[in-house]
Amino acid sequence: MRHPVKHRAIFAGLLAITSLLCVAPAFAHPDMAVTARVLFDIRAGRLTGIAQLLSFDAATSARLLARVDSDRDGALDPEEADALTTEITTSLGTHGFFTEIRIADRSVALAAPVAADTSMQSGHIVLRMAFAVPQPAMLQDGARLELMLRDRDLTLAFRFARVQPLILRGDQGRCSTAIAPKPDAAYFGGLVTPDVAVLTCR
What Å distances lie between residue 115 and 51, 83, 149, 182, CA to CA? Predict the structure, then answer.
């Protein structure tokens, strides 16, 4: 999926740190493990965009590559990368991208990404997606945003990256981020407690 020029900037913060996602974490039960980074794009005090960088575990990455690697060279050429991007984003989209967002205690759903691409990094498939916020949300006076990645069936196990899991752009030093466990959102029979990304702005 090619992304328009005006949306390429949303990837800038993520592109600079993609190489840090060298090894995805191991999980005992899920079929697929996904390490995530999230970028919040803030303009004039409003959240206008969210970008996600998702790195799949090595075994899942090998399976995904095999699905599109028509020339069997073990690499993603542009056509193969586009095909894989379309396949993954379409699959994730049927589940709301497994992304749950609340701003000032109001739910916000993500529409289809305005830009997306896929690459191979150190044996891991890395998917980048940029989403426009349909009604830019004002972030000030302690407004709180919560973002959670959760597959209730635990086919996909999401985990925020240990290094730079959350990235702010354009906040002019007015916002801060944190990652915290959310026990009241436990799922899979209460066995899994997800982490939530929290963004607050003054």
Answer: 9, 14, 19, 30
Give the containing element (helix H, strand E) for 149.
strand 143-149
| Residue 159: strand pairing partners | 35
The answer to whether the beta carbons of residues 52 and 36 sit under 8 Å apart is yes
Query: How far from the centroid of its chain's Cα atoms is residue 6's Cα?
Result: 20
Contact assessment for residue 24 and residue 62, using Cβ atoms and an 8 Å cutoff: no
Task: Say what the pTM is.
Answer: 0.84
pLDDT at 24: 39
**With the C-alpha atoms ordered 147, 176, 124, 84, is the resulting torsion angle positive or negative?**
positive
Decide: 133 and 108 in contact? Cβ < 8 Å.
Answer: yes
pLDDT digits 0-9 by tens, 103-126: 888 898 889 999 999 999 999 999
Query: What is the phi-psi region of residue 164: left when phi exceeds 0, alpha when psi lies from -120 to 50, beta otherwise?
Result: left
Model confidence pLDDT, tens digit, residues 17-74: 444 444 333 333 468 999 999 999 998 888 999 999 999 999 999 999 999 999 999 8
Is the Cβ–Cβ distance between 125 and 84 less than 8 Å? yes
199: enclosing H helix or E strand:
strand 195-201
Distance CA 64, CA 68 (A): 7
- For residue range 121-155, list pLDDT tens digits in order: 999 999 999 999 877 778 877 888 999 999 999 99
How many residues are present in the chain? 202
155: tokens are: 């086919």
